[in-house]
Amino acid sequence: MRLPPRTPGAEGLRSQEVLLEEVTEIEGVEDKAGSDLEGGLLLLGEDAEVHPGEGVKLAELRGYRSRMLKVVQEGYEKEDEAIMDFFHGAMKHYFCSVKEPDSLSTPEMAELCKLYIQEEVDLIMVVGGDSAVKFAALLLQERAKPVLCISKDNESMLGSIQLSNWKCELPTVLTHIRDNRYYSERLMRLHVLSEVVVRRKTHFCIKAAVFINGEHFTDTVTDGIIVATPLGSTGYAMNCGGPIVNYRSTNIVLVAVNPLTLSFRPLVMSHDIEVEICISKDSRSEAEVHFDGKCHDRLRQGESIRIRQGHDFEMVRLGEDSRSQHKIKAIYSWNAGYAFT
Fold it and tell me: For residue 1, is it within any domain?
């Protein structure tokens, strides 16, 4: 993504201290100076106290030195606390935690990435649904790091472990990650995991030009334009009439939001193209650009944004999974209720 230069004003970047206070939480750390904190993330070292619980051999993880970041979605606090309690406090010293925040401006997101994501990060653990995974993807940016997601049953397309069975599966998966013999699934992303949305900022429609690989493709007057990955095809794009694309495929979906002309049909395009959306100088409204609903910025008349495929996103899996179509049917109730008469 290439955004136009922006000079933060009074509404711009908040101070680092305020940002940390509002959106982050570090567990098990009272004094950074006296802790084992290095570069913002904690080490799981040989001296960590391990208490086996309910027959799970947590002692196998002793000596596993790894840097992990845990992202917790709002509404999953009790589940996260239960996971920590299961390990009797030992896991609190394994993780640096960050709560999934509301939508941040582009400078604020960049500042958060500097605070929490470094090249030494080995794993991101997500306690929550797809929304928290998308936030983790924004934190990672172009870094290729595995992500492990613990989610409620049948509520996440990206869940690695279901909450109903995490006590048995989590220690096993962590052991496999330590031994570098875990299964993973690579998903396409456009620097974001799901979608980039350019939409009107006022009650007037935006007038925009769309370019494909640098060549003019079309002009439109619309409420917004969505550029989505296969995973994002089941979100905002689907609500605007876009197709459902298997999230394991590699395609780019282009969907207009309430276009002035009915002939602007959704398009499924090749993954290797670059889409550029330019707000026309005579557009009656400025535009806002949103990245997976977690980060936003401003597009004035005459400014543009370029969107292209980024590095693959790696999700940790328990094993080979060939039931992606069944997930779509179960989560989105696809063709539910139909019966022959």
Answer: no
CA distance 292 to 332: 19
Residue 219 or residue 99, greater confidence: 219
Please indicate whether residue 137 or residue 275 has the higher confidence score (pLDDT): 275
Domain annotation covers residue 323: no
What CATH number does residue 167 fall under?
Answer: 3.40.50.10330
Residues 71, 172, single domain; the answer is yes
State phi, psi for 210 to the nearest 5 degrees.
-115, 130
Q: For 91-100, how does the pLDDT look when each residue is reduced to its tens digit (9 = 90+)? A: 554 566 777 7
Neighbours of 188 (CB within 10 A): 21
Structural domain containing residue 219: 195-307
Total structural domains within the chain: 2
What lies within 8 Å, CB to CB, of 302 at 6+ separation is: 278, 279, 280, 281
Residues in contact with 274: Cβ distance below 8 Å, sequence separation at least 6, in sequence order: 212, 213, 214, 306, 307, 308
- Per DSSP, 90 falls in state G
Amino acid at 206: I
Asked whether residue 35 falls in the same domain as residue 61, the answer is: yes
pLDDT band of 13, cuts 50, 70, 90: very low
